[in-house]
Structure formats: C-alpha cells, structure tokens
Amino acid sequence: MLIERGEQLAQLRRNLQSCEKHRIGHVALVTGPVGMGKTQLLETFGKWADSTGARVLTAAGSRAEQGLPFGVLGQLLHGARLAGCDTTRVEKLMAEAADAIPTAEARWAAADELPAEGPMWPPLLRDVFATLLELVDRGPLVLVVDDLQHADATSLHCLLYVTRRLHHAPIMVLLSETSTLRPANSLFHAELGSRPRLSHLTLPPLTVDSVTQLLQERDGEPGGAGSSEVVQEAQRLRHMTGGNPLLVQALVGEPHRREEEGGPAPLPRVGDAFGRAVLHSLYRHEPEARKVARALAVLDRPVSQELLGQLLGLLPASVTSALRVLHSSGLVDTDRLRHPRILHAVLSDTPTEIRQWLHERAAKTLHEYGAESSVVAGHLVASGLTGEEWVAPVLQDAAEHALSAGRPDLTVAYLRLGCEAGTDEERRKALTSMLVSARWQVNPLAANGDLDRLVRSAKTDGYPVSAAVAAVPYLLWQGRAEEAAEAVAAGPEAKAGETAGPKDGRLQAMRLLVSLSHPDFLVSARKSQGLWSKAATAAHSVSPLLQAVSVLGSALLPTDEVDSTAAAEQFLQRHHLDRGDRGMLVAPLLALLYAGRADRVVAWCGILLGRPETRHTPAWRGVVRSIRAEAALRLGDLPEAEQDARAALEDLPAPAWGVAVGGPLGTLISCATEAGRHAEAERWLAEPVQTGMFRTPVGAHYLIARGSHHLSTGRHQAASSDFQRCGAMMRGWNLEATGLVPWRLELARVQIALGNRTHAAQLLREQLHVPHGLDERTRGRALHLLASTAAPDHRRKLLSKAVELFQSCGDRRGLARALADTNQALRQSGGGERTRHFVFRADDAAKGPDAVPWVRQAPEQQGNPRAAEDGDRDDVLSEAELRVAVLAARGQTNRQISDALFITVSTVEQHLTRTYRKLNVRQRTDLPSWLLAMDDHQPREVQDKVS
C-alpha cells in the first residue's frame, strides 16, 4: 500500500509525459532513508508507465554484487534483450572491458576513482546508447535503477554517458538511493547534478494522518478524520517508528494490541513481524551502523557519542554518521533506540559472544567515565568480568544501593559475581552478609547456605556486632533461637551492651528482638525495660532499628509511660519512605495490631504494599500481607483476611516461612472456622509446622486459631488444652498484651459451651482487669461474653457497652453478634416484634457470604427478615422515625433534629410521638441505649453535622 507518496508519484508521471510530448529525456533521483518506500514508489510508477505504452527496463544495485563489473548494466540489457533488441555485441564488449580492469581491488573502486580507459570503452558506450535508442523507436523508454548506492562503478560510467545524451531522446532515467554513512559516488552525483532536466525527490516520514489512514484501512473504515482512539493509536505508532513506512506497516499488520497504562505492553516473541522489519532495516545499513545499534541496545541508556565511539573503537565522525542514518530510518531517537521492541529485536539478533563482549566493553568504558555503580554492575554481571581490581568495590556499592532500593534480585546477582572477583577476606564477609539479606527477601530457603557460612565465619571472629546484626533476624526466622542468643551475647561488644544506654542501638535492638520473638531466651533484655522503653518515643537520639523493636516491646509489655499506638504511628510516618531496611517496619505494624488498632494496620499495610519495590521482594510482601490479613480478621472482614493470607502463602510457600508460618496459617484457620468451613480448616491444620514455632508468640496465635476450630466442632477438651497451653506460655513469658492472644477470653468460651458460667465469668473478669494493654476489641468481646453469664437487667447494659466498643474499634462481625444478642435480650424482656428493626441493623453489620452463622434471628424472622420493613405496622419504626429516634437518644433537641434532617419541628414531634408509642416509652431519656450505635441509619451529611 503506497501511503503519502501521491505527490512524488504525480511528479514522476508528469516527467514521463513531458519526455513523450517533447521528445526529450529526463533524470529523476529519489532519495530517503531505509524503509521509506523508495522501491515501492519505483515499482508503482513502473507499472503505470508500462500501462501507458512505455518500455520499462529495471535493475537494482546490491552490496554483494558491487564488485561485479557491469552488474547493473547487465540487468538493464537483459530487459532490452527480452524486449527484442540484439545485445550480443554490447555484451561482448562488456566482457572485454571487464577483463581489462587490472585488479580485484579496482572492481570495488568508486565511480570517481575507476579510469574508464582502453580501446573497448568508446565502442561499448556508443553501442549501449544505440541499443537503448532502438527501444525508443517503439515509445518512451524508462530506465529504473533501485539502490544506486550499491551500483558497480562500471555501470555508473555507462549511465552517465546515457544521461549526457538525453537532449533529443525520450528516455527517462529513474534512480533511487538510500542514505549511507558516507556520501556514495560523489563524482557521479556531481556530474548528474549538472543535468538541466533533473528532478530530486526526497521521501519524508509518514505523518500521523497517514498512519491514521492505514489503521482505518486495516479496520475496514476508510475515509474520515478517524476517532480519537484511532488518532491516539496512530500517534503511538508514529512515535514508536519515527514514521518509517516499513516499520509502521509491520505494526499495523499485527493483531490489535494496546500498551497498558503505567507501563509498556509485554514484549512479543522473537521473530514477530515488527522485529523482522527492524532487522530488515538494520541489515540494509553498513556494518558500522549495526555495531552502533547493538551497542545502544546493550547500553539501553542515553550516552555521549564520544563514549559510544570509545566503546566500539570507532572515530566520533563514524558514530555521528551511524546515529544520523539510524535516526533517519526510525530506529534511533536522539541517542538511544526509539522503543523497547526495537531494542528487543536488535538484542535477539546479536550473537551471545558479541553481546558479552559489548557488555564487558560497556562496563570498562562506563567505569572510566564515572558512571553510577549500579549501571556498571549490570554490565559486569552480563559479561561475567571478574579479573580486575576495581570490579569487587563497584559490585559491592551497587549491591548496597540495590538492596536499599528494594531490588534484592539485582543484589543477589551483583554479590554472586562479587564473591568470585578475588576479593579480600574482609570484603568477602561483608558481601556474604549482604547476600543473606538479599536472598532471604527473594526466598528464605535459598539463604540457608549463605547464612551457615556467615555464622561459621562470625564464630571464628568472636561475633562482631556487624555479623550478629546481620545473622540474628534470619536465625530467629528459622527458629534457631539458641544460635541467635549466642550471637548477641558472645562478642566483647555484647558485654558492654548489657548495661549500655539506648544510643548503642544495633546490638541492643537484636538482644531485645531475640527476647521478644523467643521469650524463653534473654529474659533479662526484656525485663530491663528502663534501658529501652524510652527509645520507643525518642525522636532522633537512637538508631531506627532499636526504636522499631522498642515500639514493639512497649506494645507487648505495656506501661503508662509509653503510648505504643502513638509511637508506632510516628515511627511509620517517619520511616515508611526510607530506602533502607524495610524489615524494621514490621515491628510497629505488629505493635499497632497488638494495641488493638487493626484499622490503622490495614491502612499502613496498604501504603507499604503500594510501593513499587514490593514487586521484587516476595518475603517482605508476604509478611505485610500476613499482618494485614490478621488485621482484617479482627475487623470482621473475612473475605479480605482470607484473600491476604492466601496471597501471603503464594508469595512464600509454607516451608519458606520458618517459625512465622503460624501467622498466615492461623488466620486462614480462623477464617474457615468463622465461616463454618470446618473441612477447609482441617486442611490448613494439616500443613506441617516447626516445633520451634510454639516457643514464639506466633505459636500462641496459631494455638488460639486451632483451639477455636476445636471449640466450633464440639471438641471442648482439645480446645481447652490449646487455650490452657497458650495461657501457660503467656504467663511464663509474662506477656500480658491482650491484643496478642486474649487466652482467658477464649478459655471462657469453652466454659460457657460446657455450661460452667461461673468459671467463665471469673475468667472474663480477670481478662477485664489485666493491667494495661486491654484494647477496645478485646474489652468488647469480654463484655459480650460476660453478658451471657449475667442476669437479664445487667445483660442489656453489658451488651450496650459491647456494642459501643465494637462500633468504636470497627469490628463488624463482633458488632453483628452483639446487636443480634441485644435483640434477643430485648425480646426476652418483652420487646417482641418491636425490636425487629434491630435485627436489620445486626444483619447490615454482618453483610457478606459468611454472615449467616453470626446473626441469630427468631424462627419467624429467618425466612425474610426485611419482609415487614416497608409495611405500615404499629410496632415497627419507619426509616424516618428511626433517624429521629437515633438523634433524640443522643440528646439532641427537637430544633437540632429539625436542622440536621431538614424537616420541620412539628414533623420531629410527630415522629417522636409515634416512636414512644411503638417502643412503649414515655420520654427520650427512656429510649433504648442500642439506638446510640446506629450510625448507618443517618445520611452522611447528618453524621458529619452531628459529629
């Protein structure tokens, strides 16, 4: 398809018509970069000329035949012979002239260097022109020569002879030439330019309108301006190809595909139509241009022409020329390949050994030019270069930057090569330490071998602080608490750290971490609360690592001196954007969770998971998802909790979790149990766990989940055993943070199920009187359970308080349970059908597929609980009455209610009169306390106004 070449085609047609009319010759030269449609234009014009009765002879230059004398002329004479001319004499003279050319080197000489001397040349030139004139007698003659830049020198001499004698011969000479690195056939062009009847046509790139036309033709919608989507697609293709018709048509011919927002579309397989077009264009350039294109593909970044020349060993002028022709053909945009798909095509065609050599040259050259270590390191890894002194420091520096930027995958590649680079022992230890951290973030199982080497080396050196800090978190993850405790207690620095203040951050943080994560070890570190508790709220006087662990300690060992919630929020706000150790952010997240702020945990986890680097850190991503899953469970959002916990186990398989596997497994067991999917809970319980897990708080979390499953399936003894074991662990550790595991509350559930309400009430009162750290959710659950052991009058008060607490902490499932039980208590006290709308509130709080086991309705309500909502009954509050009643229960005056709901005071009085009658009360102070929790029955603007 010839697009946007109508003007040039019309010009050529006028030239031929002028030749025929005035019986005078004409020369036309068509120029342009590779792929601009020159050949297509010549073929289209040739077909048209032939259809008008003209005689058309065609030839094409070729790089492979450039040293063949009279190669192009021979093609033209072959066409003449087919047209009926006798070319025998001319061909004989051509053979003699070819033999007279002295050397093989002369055959490759340019037209301005090859001497056309010898007795055979004059008769040859005359006979060539005479042969062509024989064809003119039958009509206009058109000589078409494509790829003139590759024509042999002898043929060019003959063509010049013909062009000098066109004054009275209707012969049109049509030539096409592609842009090259260096001007080709300068003397030929100089003489050709002196011809009075010469047309020079340059083919420009396609415009957006032309690409739009191509897209419309493809989609079967020719004509018109094109829709905005088509124009947008045309602009994308134009930018991607520089308007090169060869590349554009390859893209247009592909199945319709769009690049996703936020990133390029996936690269297609090698050998696709566009890739073939790129290589077709590339191989029609000189070898120097291919070298430059390959170097740009390997570098994949803007570089100076000087650097590019040094990398390839080319003169700057050669690089400039190569970039010029590559840019004109649409492959290069300024100083880099125009599009990733072009880069992909060029790299796929580059032999492995050449690519490796280019990477090695790039590493050396970029290092000499002072490029960033990460850039140089990428080329070092690709080339495998290790034999020079500067390699190891560059790789170490690049690894540190990659690790802090959340790219442990790159870090591992840098460090592996760095360890092979013949480094000194001290540097090798540092690299091994970093390698453990990087490999753990990708796959904890892959870090085991490096961790063992690091531990052996640290033991030999007496456990310096750097080695202990590097090894301890991963030893704890694997359940190797004895080795972790030894690491932080063995070195001379550790002895000083036992009495040091908070400014001695790293080692003290590790000691506290061991004590909190495996509470059987280093008990003294946990009990020396005065040494670290102030670090939780210190602004800048301690290391972030010590502050993070101290925040967690203040949540697990709560006191009046430290507000762990505020400290955790402040730490996350200050450090969540840091490019350093992200693992320390786990501690404040857990602190918020154990302090009862599951809502803030969900919010912060969303922020952290939204960071781009989490794509490359499966371990970190899995841990954050596991924490968010437990937080969602505590907010009553079972679907979200299950989704996050499953995703955490997809990020890391269960064996890779070490002793932390109880986190996501415990959440999944709880979700399945709460939803009544007991067979699924059994499958999760069948997953193997390390015995060392039960020496950690994560093990306590798992025991609570397992015990709850036993209780829901009627295995009271097994449930009691798990809860009691959990309680023994917590008492032994002296960890009474109820947000961690409120084991007394869970044990009370067993006693209630067994009918031992007195014992249950005792456990619940103990739970309510735990000093410090009793979060709203735990208090609400305790009061809710305690209500089931209390007398009817006291039960309603306890349930009302539980409703308030669940509403405050955001636990929808707990709220649904408490509302449903409040409804039941009201019915038992004689409320009857007057509380039906309260069931609706409980049902709303427990929306979702897992709500049924939690909303206990009266038998007559279970079929269609909302059946009477819209009915006009004397014992059911209407929606309008309910809104007024909620505000009245909160102490609002009639005028305030009128302003909030945009109704008249008279209407408020009428609603209240009907409400008092339906609820059997005399005044607003007698309105039920459960109305205080009913925010959802108020419009948002009313809620805002009231608040």
TrEMBL record:
What are the HTH luxR-type domain coordinates in residue numbering?
Answer: 870-935
Keywords, alphabetical: ATP-binding, Nucleotide-binding, Plasmid
**Superkingdom:** Bacteria
What Pfam families does the record tag this protein with? AAA_16 (PF13191), GerE (PF00196)
Matching entries from SUPFAM superfamilies are given as: C-terminal effector domain of the bipartite response regulators, P-loop containing nucleoside triphosphate hydrolases, TPR-like
PANTHER family for this protein: TESTICULAR SOLUBLE ADENYLYL CYCLASE, TRANSCRIPTIONAL ACTIVATOR DOMAIN
What's the protein name?
Answer: AAA family ATPase
Species annotation: Streptomyces akebiae
